[in-house]
Amino acid sequence: MPDTRIFDWLNVDDRYPLLYVKSLGLRWGNDEATKAIICRFQEVAKRLQLKPDYWSAILRGTAWRDALIGCICVLVSPHSNQNHFDDLAFNFRQGNWVGPQIAVTMGIKYPDLARRFFAEYLASIGFEQKATDFPIKSIISAQCILSKLGVSVEIAKFEAPSELAKDDIQTATWVVDHYWEFWSTRLLEQ
After folding, report:
1. Taking a C-beta distance cutoff of 8 angstroms, is the pair 139, 125 a contact?
2. Of the segments 3-7, 34-38, 176-180, which one has the largest average pLDDT value?
3. Is residue 5 predicted with pLDDT exceeding 90?
4. Residues 24-33: contacts with CB within 8 Å, 24+ apart?
5. Which of 87, 168, 176, 184 falls between 20 and 30 A from 115, CA-CA?
6. Please, what sign has the CA dihedral across residues 77, 86, 148, 163?
7. How many Å apart are CA 62 and CA 12, to the nearest integer?
8. Rounded mean pLDDT of 83-104?
9. Residue 9 half-sphere exposure, CB side, CA atoms within 13 Å?
10. Is the pLDDT of residue 158 over 50?
11. Which residues lie closer than 8 Å to 160 by C-beta, 6 or more apart?
12. CA dist., res. 62 & res. 41, Å (int)
């Protein structure tokens, strides 16, 4: 049976059900509800701080919901733990469905480490491969994050990508742009 503590901690009442889903919306207003939601994630981050092995498991796991909650907790936590970066990098390499959110978390919270990681990640990929041979969302996310961090990168060109691949390219670009804008703005306000 999977460990679901994090969901119990996050959803302690019915005022804000499925907070991890709200975090995908990226259109939170600058209102009291948004602040309450961020406070809830901060409370979960404090609990995770006391259980570093559990936090690591969440950040490394294949379950996208867990990884997303773990990312948000990293973003709202006042602590910067390099182990979190290593866990996020591990999960990013696995091609997690929330790879764009993982990439944003790495770029915002650990910009120097992210520059090096994403540059090495992209250098390790042979662009002569077919678009189906590697996680396109991860490649696009890495390129977008490097660009946001001021690093010039060669944009990968994919020969005749499938409709699904085109969708992955658009999704990764949109998510990174909006997630970056939302979280970098929120973190500056705190």
Report:
1. yes
2. 176-180
3. no
4. 24/68, 26/175, 26/178, 26/179, 26/182, 28/182
5. 168
6. negative
7. 24
8. 94
9. 20
10. yes
11. 131
12. 20
- The letter for the amino acid at 16 is Y
Exposure string for 25-39, b = 16+ CB within 10 A, e = fewer: ebeeeeeeeeeebbe
Q: How many other C-beta atoms are found inside a 10 Å radius of the C-beta of residue 178?
A: 15
Q: What are the pLDDT digits (tens) for 124-146?
A: 876 555 445 568 889 999 999 99
Is there a contact between 59 and 88 (Cβ–Cβ < 8 Å)? yes
The model's confidence at residue 107, banded by pLDDT at 50, 70 and 90, is very high
pLDDT on residue 26 = 47
Is 66:4 a contact under the CB 8 Å cutoff? Answer: no
| Cβ proximity of 48 and 58 under 8 Å | yes
Per-residue DSSP letter, 187: H
Cα separation of 86 and 19, whole Å?
Answer: 25
- Asked whether residue 20 carries a pLDDT value surpassing 90, the answer given is no
Of 19, 90, 84, 85, give the one whose Cα is nearest residue 61.
Answer: 90
Residue 12 reports pLDDT greater than 90: no
